[in-house]
DNA sequence: CTAGGTGCTGGAGCATACTCCAGCTCAAGC
DNA sequence: GCTTGAGCTGGAGTATGCTCCAGCACCTAG
């Protein structure tokens, strides 16, 4: 796959793809005869996974660490599992906070609706 | 309340409190005889609320916008309610993504556990 | 009355995560 | 064969959200 195709498929900009390669999030892909990147198809799935770690708040340095472990193969299964278990706990904590804040938004919206109707009534 | 007390009570650094005041997130508090900030007690609740907006991903510029509306009083009830309703939808979207990623972490952890036990078995 | 602690201002600096640019190469269509 | 477009590299620049610092003022304890 050409870099433009990977960009379209993943929603990451071409610059971001090269940046991710530079910091070690994406393996340097083989090059074609003209020196252009020719990505394997499975990079799409990997980038989607990175996107999920990103969107759930895993910092870049940690994602890089995970990518490094992945490159080292079977010897790092345990380390990778432990990273994902730790991130799972982070997500659980955020979920609780999100749910609490969602409930708070509901309460606040109801309060504002009440205030608005009171405003209206004595215009 | 002194700035150091607000800092302790909220977990925000003194520098961050002054920074929040500078950008309009916190109302400039009255000063004591020596020109030092003397915060009203209710700033603690306001900062906690800002913290929840922050932790659920509301960007600074939006929080500043909300704070500005709040300063304008009853005339902005509707605008504030609409901001909170919009943020509520953002949170709902994040909740879904978090839940999906949590499930993904579970699946991945299980896969790694299987891989680890297989590794072990042919040592 | 002096030392130490707390607070003040204005402005510089920093970490994270990209984003953009100059100047170049290459391949393909007209 | 020449233009156009995609891609390349190295490095600079940007946005967000703080964080730190110099240099000074003030209050309190000993």
Automatic annotation (TrEMBL), chains A, B:
PROSITE patterns: HTH_MERR_1 (PS00552), HTH_MERR_2 (PS50937). SMART domains: HTH_MERR. Keywords: DNA-binding. Signal peptide: none annotated. Pfam families: MerR. GO terms for molecular function: DNA binding; DNA-binding transcription factor activity. It comes from the Bacteria. Residues 1-59 form the HTH merR-type domain. InterPro entries: DNA-bd_dom_put_sf, MerR-type_HTH_dom, MerR_fam. This is MerR family transcriptional regulator.
